Amino acid sequence: MTAKNITSFIVLGKEAAAAGRPRDAEVAFLMSCRVADKLKGMDSVESADAKYQLGWLYAGLALEDGSASAKRAELRRRAERLYADSLRTYQARYGQAHEKTRFAAEGLAALGQPVRSAQEGTSTPSKTSVPPSHPRQVEAAQAALPAPREPGAATSPGPSFDCAKARSMPEKMICSDAELARLDRELGRVYARAKNAASDGAAFRRQNSEEWRRREATCRDRECLLRWYANRHDQLMRVIEGPKQEPAPSTVSR
Q: What proportion of the chain, given as a percentage, has pLDDT over 90?
């Protein structure tokens, strides 16, 4: 195992979550946590990144319909611990204004937990308890890791999904355009925040599926995709910000 495996497991987890395979996503994120803790230490940024992703998964599952209340409560507790651990590391390493600190704080706040500063918390992140994985699941996750790149090979950030699996015209255009790939990554981060903030998880997922199908069905050029990303970003930001309050009528007599 190398440090590159941490990122690889996180990517696998995101892909599994996007494909509706939460158990596979959990195994991948758990592996990223364990590799990060072993290679980089529990107070490392790499460990915090892995814990944040696992917390995001548990927080999303806690909002799923049909789950028993006891199961939802346990998922929330796991998400809270993971968010809190990652937040402490981000605060200590980056300060309050950094994007990672804000995302972890927003995730914790979405679960109804108070956000403490690094000075208020403990200086050493707690050992977050995570459920064990079956050995065969671990082996499968390890086998799914992509082959390491040759040293010095050029790499450019891709979109939030695996371009090797791109099939539709919009997906292929996104994979071949650096600007569209950047917008897709940014939208993925905003989506995670909006998912935590959504008051109706089922309605949020339905709208997301509808918007994705609309993009796949209608966008056949770069300009259409640019408009779609801008509109979708605005939609998700409105979910994050919540309904705007109408100003109270003035009581000043004329």
A: 36
Q: Give the end-to-end CA distance of the chain in Å, rounded to a whole number.
A: 74
Name residue 253's amino acid.
Answer: S
Q: All domains of the chain, ordered by start, with CATH?
A: 4-142 (1.25.40.10), 163-241 (no CATH)
CA dihedral 87, 93, 96, 99 (to 10 degrees): -80
Which residue type, as a one-letter code, is found at position 145? L
Name, in order, each residue with C-beta under 8 angstroms of 39's C-beta and a sequence gap of 6 or more.
1, 2, 3, 6, 46
- pTM for the full predicted model: 0.50
| Coil, strand or helix at 83 | helix
SS3 144: coil
Assigned token pair, 141: 């996750």
220: Cβ contacts below 8 Å, ≥ 6 apart:
169, 170
More confident residue, 254 or 180: 180
Q: The tokens of 163 are what? A: 């371009």
pLDDT of residue 221 exceeding 50: yes
Q: Is 225 exposed, middle or buried (0-12, 13-18, 19+ CB in 10 A)?
A: buried
Choose among 143, 78, 145: nearest CA to 113. Answer: 78
